[in-house]
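Page header: ASSEMBLY MODEL / two components / 515 residues total.
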Amino acid sequence: MNFLQPIGRIFLAFLATAGHLIMFTVTAVGSCARPPYYPRMILRQMLDIGYYSLPVVGLTALFAGMVLALQSYTGFARFSAEGAVANVVVLSITRELGPVLAGLMVAGRIGASMAAEIGTMRVTEQIDALTTLSTNPLKYLVVPRLIAGLMMFPFLVLVADIIGVFGGYVVAVYKLGFNASNYIQRTYDFLQAEDVNSGLVKAAVFGVIVTLMGCYHGYHSKGGAQGVGAATTNAVVSACILILCFDYILTEMFFAK
Amino acid sequence: MTESTPKIRLRGVDKAFGAKVVLSGMDLDVGVGESVVVIGGSGTGKSVMLKCILGLLKPERGSIEVDGKEVLGIGAKERERVNNKIGMLFQGAALFDSLPVWENVAFGLLAQHLVSRPQAKEVALSKLAQVGLGADVGELWPAELSGGMQKRVALARAIAADPEIIFFDEPTTGLDPIMADVINDLIVKITREVGATALSITHDMASARKIANRIAMLHEGKIIWAGPTSKIDESGDACVDQFINGHADGPIKMAVRA
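Prediction written out in full:
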């Protein structure tokens, strides 16, 4: 029966981490509802998450839209259904690719930097210093990031939606020879508010996931540079996995019949 | 609080990390206005003791009193009030990288909303002047400072709110002997000026002799000797003698892996 021991240990460790994470989430979200707030920190994080992620998210969305138009055209040409390219592009981008790709890209950029910054603060005793200076580290470090993530991810996804659809339009019109006004009309006719809204809700959830994972792993990092490195990796990996899990759950909630 | 009530009083404090016992029934008194230095080898729990007093770590057992009031198990608001009395100089300075020097110094004042930003800056610059740094340093970032300057800035931050108690965690570690002496002089001068009670931890005997009224030696989780600085050379304790003279041979065995 000895072979069961390591499995049991891993399972217990997983449960302990899950419990720890849930407690951290509850405390952090609870802290959002109580002052003090740090407007300067919130603005700084909004700028970092929203403005500085625009190039990464924009480029990703542009190429995703372009590839999508090209692939769907190649596939649909077999069934003489090339006209559906505009529909597929707009639906895929707004419902799925916009939020998921933006979430994954920003998880790599912001999740990693949050874990590294907070992790470094932990191992250099800066978080202890905050406590001795009458400042709750959760409220000062985690809450502004959480609020900024919640607010800026939908904005980034909206931008990704527009650029992604534009990418599809560029390929369809300038490479595949679609009529520009017809393409725009089909996109407009097929797009429903629900498609965009579901993407924005997903974005808000992904924003919370990315910031929480970055903050959680950074906040609990230990052991110097190696610990900070591990925290950074864990933050990005766990955020990416949770984004894909929650993408399925939210899609099921929104669109399952 | 009566005249005889110590500013800080530890009784029977136990703290362990898993199977590793760090503090084991530790007792210590620090009188009002006194400067006590706790000495001891690396890993003997000196920093843990300070963190227990500050509420950053929770001991398993024992009692810690500040101004005669128990501080173990108190709520967050009460803890904030206790910590407002305390300034802390961290071993690695622990300056906030994302803030300029003057904001680091004024952080506590701004966090407690004691003053406006312009007033906080004024206080920060005057505290920087107290530790021998010019106003131009206030505009720099912590990463632009040398180790000695970072320690001075951290000292300015520790005294910014005129605390009643100041903790110094290895104030001279990582500094050259001259800069270490400069920091020691500053600690003596500033604790006198502020009129604060000081509790320092170090394994630098030159520093301990300079800044302490009283020295206590921590070994195996307990204070094994405490007395006036002038008496440490005649302590009569073999562990203290070995430590202050820096001898490899003696009752204290360092864990060395082959």
